[in-house]
Design a protein that fits this description.
heterotrimer, A mainly alpha, B mainly alpha, C mainly alpha, B: mainly alpha, two-stranded antiparallel ribbon, 73% helix, globular, disordered C terminus, C: mainly alpha
């Protein structure tokens, strides 16, 4: 039933999420929101990985290779999630440190460094 | 379902293991005796790095191979880059303690984090598995985000950490999208699958692979600070604590180029598509880096832009190798990475002297009069700057010469010409640094700067000596690095102790 | 297939219709007298104080960060356990050692968190104040940061 939906739709959805995330990173000011947009991009990647693992479109694969492919894609998603969590931790830590220093956080106010 | 246990070849993974475990031990020391003298941690770190370096050296000449279920590769690229990373971390440790004390950053976690960043870089350069590559990249980057924001009382440090973090996470996402598409089109997380699958695929697969390679290169280009993706570099280099900047400039560049090299080599069959893009990126990187550096007023920013330009030079060597692998070896890439690491680390080590009593100024006028306060360090600075400019006899000159010849041999004459022109441009701003260091400080407010500690003196001495040593033994370095004369390399490396490997034998 | 969900669809439509009629009806039929007092928030006899966009104390973030880290750890165990039961013994031993190392690293991290006092709820004692005081130029003393967080 899942395979009724063509692969390209999933890839398209992933690409749309990725682009929304990219636009968000570029236009938003609040670092927390920017960070949420990056998470959205990572989720788009996860979706792409899962769909590729499920559909297995690589040419000339044996059944065993295809199974390994599926497993590889699913494990990749787990690793991406773990790394995203680590990034959240560090990112929020940095944002916290800036709050302590300045009592505000806005990407546009971050302009000590320029030249 | 069959369960296959991966074969484990411990010597291959030993260097990374040693570095990681040393980091954990350092954390334990910090936990047991907090905020004490950090000398124990530094000593432990140096011993650990020495052990790791020697276990890398032992593998020189061993046959290429894969282990851990194809996750870890042992080949010349991996070994040389690992050795470079270990050496960079070693030198960074030498001068960090004095700097951290002067800057009053009570953050002993610098040492474990730097060790883990090194380990991440070492993972990156010893694998062809994209997922492993990504994990190594993240271990390196996340540790560097923390380190960049290490100086918690300084808003410029926090700002640089935030900028680095947001752009770095963005680049990671781009890189990941690339490997997702590569995975989809090739059915494997391994980079080599691109080479094997490319001829057999349909136009649809070709599109997916090209898209994947493009995104992957963009993500890695960010880490290596290639030009369309370079905007973060000067800001982060300026804001981060100076010892971190030095470490970051050298280590992340080596690791990123290791990964870039593997991706480009795996994608060599489709180079007709990406080569023009990389060609222009290379020209832009050299030119923009140098032109932007000319107008800078801050030493760390100048060195930041110079590192962008140097990334362009290294990219010339990499592209020459990928273009015609039979005519051009990887020798000049390795050689220039070694030279670049020594020059940059050394220069940042000298600049770190401008920290005193919790304050630090890195504008050009802040290093006025450095000559009278730390003559030895300034003499070494002269060596580094001469090498960065490319004055013979220095490693920078020899490295640029090698790259120039490579580019000519590979038929990339435009790149060679741009390289030469840029070397001339760069003279101006490098001399600006030197001039500032020699200007006397009469009339100006008495500038503050720290007394160079013994660690810093050793660090700059090692780097300055290495710059000369590498230029006089250039052929030998290249041969050893590329493994063309294996037996000779082995005997020599046990009898003499070459510069960066010198501290690798802590008895 | 679609028929199974038809009752739910009908229910949703019905609910939307009834709610819509009520809301629109009261808006159209009801009298409208807007006074400043009425249009201020919280009509419960008390004048509104301060701003509505209040900040959380910053220490919540620290706990949230640590939670996220330790939360994600389980995902690897889950994927491991799905194949652990049916695997041959040598695989169980091998992967068991791997997971033990993995969990050991988490425990090191946990010990570190406890040791530096990141889990101390009292802001004044967390974030290793002795370390902050150790530096001469503390821009943000513990007390000030406390007020800042609560401001």
């Amino acid at each position: 039933m899942v395979n009724d939906v063509p692969l390209s739709w999933f890839l398209g959805l992933g690409m749309i999420m990725f682009c929304i995330g990219t636009i968000g990173v570029v236009v938003r000011r609040n670092p927390v929101v920017v960070f949420m947009c990056i998470e959205l991009m990572l989720n788009a990647v996860n979706l792409t990985f899962l769909v590729f693992a499920r559909y297995g479109i690589a040419p000339g694969q044996t059944l065993e290779q295809a199974t390994n492919t599926a497993m590889g894609g699913q494990m990749a998603v787990i690793f991406v999630m773990a790394v995203a969590a680590a990034e959240v931790a560090v990112g929020l830590g940095i944002i916290m440190a800036i709050f302590r220093l300045k009592n505000e956080a806005d990407v546009d106010d971050m302009s000590v460094l320029r030249g | 379902m069959n369960y296959v246990l991966p074969t484990v070849e411990w010597p291959t993974v030993m260097p990374v293991l040693i570095v990681v475990v040393t980091g954990i031990l350092a954390v334990f020391i910090e936990m047991l005796w907090p905020k004490r003298n950090n000398n124990v941690i530094v000593g432990l770190g140096l011993v650990g790095l020495g052990l790791a370096g020697s276990s890398v050296l032992k593998q020189f000449g061993a046959p290429d191979g894969v282990t851990f279920g194809d996750m870890v590769v042992r080949d010349q690229v991996g070994l040389v880059m690992q050795l470079l990373l270990v050496g960079i971390c070693f030198v960074a440790f030498l001068f960090s303690e004095g700097y951290l004390r002067e800057k009053q950053i009570p953050f002993a976690e610098f040492y474990p984090l730097a060790l883990w960043a090194t380990a991440g870089g070492m993972l990156m350069v010893t694998t062809t598995n994209t997922l492993e590559l990504f994990l190594g990249l993240e271990v390196l980057s996340i540790a560097l985000y923390c380190l960049a924001g290490m100086s918690r009382q300084e808003s410029k440090s926090e700002e640089s950490a935030l900028k680095y973090f947001l752009l770095g996470a963005f680049a990671s996402a781009v890189f990941l999208m690339g490997i997702a598409y590569l995975f989809g089109a090739t059915g494997s997380l391994d980079l080599n699958a691109i080479t094997s699958v490319w001829p057999a695929t349909t136009p649809m697969h070709h599109t997916l692979i090209l898209f994947g390679v493009g995104m992957t290169l963009a993500g890695l280009g960010f880490k290596a600070a290639l030009v369309p993706f370079h905007q973060w570099t000067p800001d982060v280099y300026q804001g981060a604590p100076t010892n971190v900047t030095g470490f970051m400039a050298a280590a992340s560049k080596v690791a990123a180029f290791g990964a870039l090299l593997r991706v480009l080599m795996a994608a060599a069959p489709l180079q007709e598509f990406w080569f023009p893009a990389m060609f222009w990126i290379c020209i832009l990187t050299m030119t923009v880096g140098n032109l932007a550096a000319v107008v800078q007023k801050d030493v760390k920013r100048i060195l930041g832009y110079s590192s962008i330009a140097n990334a362009g030079y290294i990219l010339v060597a990499v592209l020459s190798h990928v273009k015609s692998p039979d005519k051009v070896g990887l020798g000049s890439t390795f050689y220039y990475l070694l030279a670049y690491s020594m020059m940059t680390l050394g220069a940042f080590a000298v600049v770190s002297l401008s920290a005193k009593g919790g304050k630090e100024g890195t504008r050009l006028q802040d290093i006025h009069g450095l000559w009278s306060r730390a003559p030895f360090a300034v003499v070494c600075l002269v060596v580094f700057v001469a090498s960065l400019i490319g004055i013979p006899p220095s490693a920078g000159f020899v490295g640029k010469l090698f790259i120039f010849n490579d580019a000519l041999a590979a038929g990339l004459t435009p790149l060679a010409i741009v390289l030469a022109v840029n070397s001339v441009i760069s003279v101006y701003y490098y001399l600006g640094i030197l001039q500032a260091a020699f200007v006397s400080e009469e009339g100006a407010v008495r500038n503050q700067s720290a007394k160079p500690g013994i660690g810093l003196n050793i660090a700059v001495l090692v780097c300055a000596f290495g710059v000369f040593w590498a230029s006089f033994n250039a052929t030998w370095v290249q041969k050893t690095a590329t493994g063309t004369s294996v037996s000779q390399a082995q005997t020599v490396s046990t009898t003499t102790s070459p510069d960066r490997m010198g501290p690798s034998n802590p008895e | 297939m679609l028929g199974d969900f038809m009752p739910i669809l009908v229910l949703v439509c019905l609910a939307a219709l009834i709610c819509g009629v009520m809301v629109v009806g009261s808006y159209v039929l009801g009298p409208k007298k807007v006074t400043p007092y009425k249009s201020s928030p919280y009509e419960c006899g008390v004048m509104p104080l301060g701003t509505a966009t209040e900040r959380f104390p910053i220490k919540f973030y620290l706990v949230a960060i640590l939670f996220v880290l330790f939360d994600i750890e389980v995902v690897f165990l889950w994927s491991w356990l799905t194949i652990f039961k049916d695997a041959p013994t040598d695989f169980q031993v091998f992967s068991g050692v791997d997971v033990a190392v993995y969990l050991g690293l988490w425990i090191v991290g946990y010990l570190y968190i406890i040791k530096i006092g990141a889990l101390d709820w009292d802001e004044a004692t967390s974030l290793a104040p002795e370390k902050l005081e150790a530096s001469a130029t503390v821009a943000v003393p513990a007390q000030a940061s406390n007020q800042e967080a609560l401001a």
